[in-house]
Structure formats: structure tokens, C-alpha cells
Q: What sequence folds into this?
């Protein structure tokens, strides 16, 4: 099948709407076609840019309070005129649904945050200039961020460890600047994202979390108002060991 | 209130007016509460809520006007494809404001399907439930909507460059 015939399916692939058979076919094609692979990456970026741009309007607290009050009054009047046990079941179901969806929504936001950082890591790997400051010296990389970030961080001494610092770059996540540091471990490259830990902007759970996303491992933790996220295709244990080095350096 | 902020954002994109969006959200929540018995357990609650909101808008005066050209336009031939690929558009560093302006410029039936897919990250199945159309129609409409968006973006960027 030529590239032209695959064009209609690229959006479906990006939307994760392919059947397993279609997925197999399109991934076979993508492995051998740099043009379509680049197109897929670009469409993913376009989708992400649209998502960021479309999250534009937020309800005012006054409106939120007004509607909550209005719904409360509505519930009271319903309570007065309908069969009480029946309504209690409906109300209980509504509360359960509300709680479930709040939890699902938080889970969804967290997944989305991880997915965005994973995309950034993959895009960095694909770039011919993955970092803006190229150095294995922490005393070169850290000062490079001075004046570019509204916070600072410590980097560990890696001399006696299997990890090697490759450099860093400035990145943006949820409209806030952050640092992306690139480390190497036995030919594997790991990204460490350091961001300001704001509940609204980085909806990741406090504490350490290890997750596997499409074969990638991730570890995140919060320390001194900063959120650290490590992403890479090494094992969770390798990520955790790098995390230990960063945590030790952060506490200095 | 589940989905409150997201429904409000979607309502603003539909109505293009915050006051109208507030009325729309309030009416949708009232209808949802009143008609909760019609919600079938085990089905998609999010699609159910978005469908109530959209149907409420469709039956309003401004909603009727927004979708008035729906039937005649939806099957119109696709605009010619431009040379602008998403990649070249992104290389041009499309600003968020430009994307927002382009979304506003899209016809309602294209805008809503892009929002449900890209912003709400609904599956084709969920979008089909929300809009009350077959899944195949969702896919073809999304394809047309994205092509229309790319064409508009390319035009805007060309104008800006002149």
C-alpha cells in the first residue's frame, strides 16, 4: 500500500482508533517509511497543541457557587415531591457516579500528564539536537539554566556511577518553564524533567510513582516544591537508582 | 459536580459567549438531575452529559442558527488540500492564539468533533454516542474537520507572513 493510501489512516492511528489488524498494518508501514512517521509525529504534536489551545475557558467561582446552590434547591424540591426511598437510591447513585468520575478525571489528568512528558522525551530522542547545553559537567549544565528558570536544583556527582550526564534543555509543560536533563545509562537515554510542583499544572500524585507506559518506565516524586519526573526505556530499578542520586543531591 | 469545568469550556466553544454558556450549563445540569432515571447504568456517563448539553444548545435559538447550514455543508466536496502539512505548520511555530482563532472560524459541526476528540480525548465510540451519529461518520467528519483546520491555519500563517 502506498503512502497516499495510508494518509486517511494516520489520523485514526493518532486517535488510537485502529483495530488490532489495522494497527499491525500501519505500524509495519511506519517502520519502513520515514515520511509517514514524521507525519504521524507532527499530527500528534498538532493534536496536543489543539488540546492546549482549546482548554481556554474556566468557570468563575461565583458561577460555580450559583449553580451548586441552584442544583441543591432543585434536589430539595424533588425530594419533597417524589417517593423518598426511590430518590435516595437515585441520589446515592449520583454521588457514587460523581465520586467515581472525579477519581476517573484525576486518573485521566495524571495519565495525560505522563503521556505529554513521554511525548517530549520521545521527541527529544528523535531530534538531531536533543539538548541546548551539551556537557557532561554538572557545573556547566546547572549554571546554564540561571535566569531561564524561576527555581534552581542540584545535580549529583556521577563519577562513581554508571550514569552520565549528556546535557539539558529548557522545556515548557502546562505553560510553565522547566528543565529537561538528559542522562545516559549503557546506551539508554533517560530524561529527567524538573518542574515547579503546582497541583493544577502538574497533576501527578505526591510521593514516588513508578508506571510503565508503552514499554517506557517513569518515576516521579516531589521535593522542596519541585516535581521530578524520570522517563526512559530502562528498567524501573535503573530509573529508581538515578532517582536516588538526584534525591541525595537535592537534599544537600 | 462531575465534569462541570469541562462542560463549561465546551459550552463556551459552542456558544462563543460566556453568559450564554453559563445558562446552557445550568440548564444541562438541571435536565441531567431531572432525567437521571433515563441514564442507563453501565453506559457512558460522560457521553450522556455532553449529549444533554449539546441537545440543549441545539434546541436554543443560537444553536439552531449555528447548525443551520449543517445538512448542506457537511457533504460538500472537500476543499483542495494545501501543501501545508501539520509538520510545516508546526515548524512555523503556530501560536496558541492562532489555533484558538482558527477553531473559532471552523463551522460548528467541525469544531465540536475536533474538541471532543482532541480536547476531551473521547474515543470514536464516545463521540458517536455524544453526537448521535454512526462511528464511520465520526471518522470521516474528523478527517474533513482536520483538513479544514489545516487549510485555515495555512491561510492565516500566509496572511501573517505578508
A:
Amino acid at each position: 500500500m502506498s503512502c497516499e493510501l495510508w494518509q486517511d489512516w494516520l489520523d485514526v492511528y493518532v486517535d488510537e482508533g485502529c483495530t488490532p489488524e489495522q494497527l499491525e498494518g500501519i505500524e509495519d508501514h511506519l517502520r519502513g517509511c520515514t515520511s509517514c512517521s514524521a507525519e504521524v509525529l507532527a499530527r500528534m504534536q498538532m493534536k496536543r497543541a489543539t488540546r492546549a489551545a482549546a482548554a481556554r475557558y474556566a468557570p468563575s467561582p461565583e458561577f460555580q457557587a450559583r449553580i451548586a446552590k441552584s442544583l441543591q434547591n432543585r434536589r430539595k424540591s424533588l425530594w419533597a415531591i417524589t417517593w423518598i426511598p426511590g430518590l435516595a437510591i437515585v441520589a446515592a447513585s449520583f454521588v457514587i457516579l460523581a465520586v467515581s468520575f472525579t477519581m476517573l478525571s484525576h486518573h485521566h489528568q495524571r495519565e495525560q500528564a505522563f503521556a505529554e512528558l513521554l511525548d517530549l522525551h520521545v521527541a527529544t530522542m528523535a531530534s538531531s539536537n536533543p539538548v541546548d547545553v551539551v556537557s557532561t559537567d554538572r557545573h556547566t549544565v546547572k549554571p546554564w539554566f540561571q535566569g531561564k528558570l524561576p527555581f534552581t536544583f542540584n545535580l549529583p556527582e556521577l563519577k562513581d556511577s554508571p550514569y552520565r550526564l549528556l546535557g539539558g534543555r529548557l522545556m515548557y509543560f502546562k505553560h510553565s518553564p522547566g528543565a529537561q536533563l538528559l542522562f545516559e545509562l549503557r546506551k539508554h537515554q533517560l530524561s529527567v524533567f524538573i518542574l515547579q510542583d503546582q497541583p493544577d499544572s502538574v497533576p501527578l500524585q505526591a510521593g514516588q510513582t513508578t508506571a510503565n507506559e508503552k514499554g517506557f518506565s517513569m518515576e516521579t516524586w516531589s521535593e522542596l516544591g519541585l516535581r521530578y519526573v524520570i522517563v526512559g526505556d530502562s528498567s524501573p530499578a535503573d530509573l529508581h537508582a538515578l532517582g536516588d542520586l538526584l534525591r541525595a543531591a537535592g537534599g544537600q | 459536580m462531575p465534569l462541570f469545568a469541562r462542560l463549561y469550556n465546551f459550552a463556551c466553544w459552542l456558544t462563543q459567549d460566556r453568559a450564554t454558556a453559563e445558562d446552557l450549563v445550568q440548564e444541562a445540569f438541571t435536565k441531567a438531575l431531572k432525567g437521571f432515571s433515563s441514564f442507563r447504568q453501565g453506559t457512558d456517563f460522560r457521553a450522556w452529559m455532553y449529549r444533554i448539553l449539546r441537545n440543549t444548545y441545539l434546541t436554543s435559538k443560537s444553536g439552531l442558527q449555528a447548525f443551520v447550514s449543517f445538512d448542506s455543508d457537511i457533504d460538500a466536496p472537500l476543499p483542495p488540500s494545501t501543501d501545508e502539512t501539520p509538520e510545516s505548520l508546526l515548524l512555523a511555530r503556530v501560536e496558541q492564539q492562532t489555533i484558538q482563532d482558527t477553531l473559532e472560524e471552523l463551522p460548528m459541526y467541525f469544531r465540536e468533533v475536533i474538541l471532543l476528540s482532541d480536547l476531551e480525548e473521547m474515543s470514536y465510540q464516545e463521540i458517536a454516542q455524544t453526537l448521535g451519529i454512526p462511528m464511520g461518520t465520526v471518522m470521516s467528519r474528523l478527517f474533513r474537520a482536520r483538513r479544514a483546520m489545516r487549510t485555515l491555519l495555512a491561510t492565516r500563517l500566509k496572511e501573517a507572513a505578508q
In short: The radius of gyration of chain A is 23 Å. The interface with chain B takes residues 8, 11-12, 15-17, 38-39, 41-43, 45-47, 49-59, 63-64, 66-68, 70-71, 74-75, 78, 90, 93-94, 97-98, 101-102, 105, 108, 112 of chain A (CB under 8 Å). The mean pLDDT of chain A is 80. The helical segments of chain A are 3-14, 20-32, 34-54, 61-81, 84-126, 138-144, 236-250.
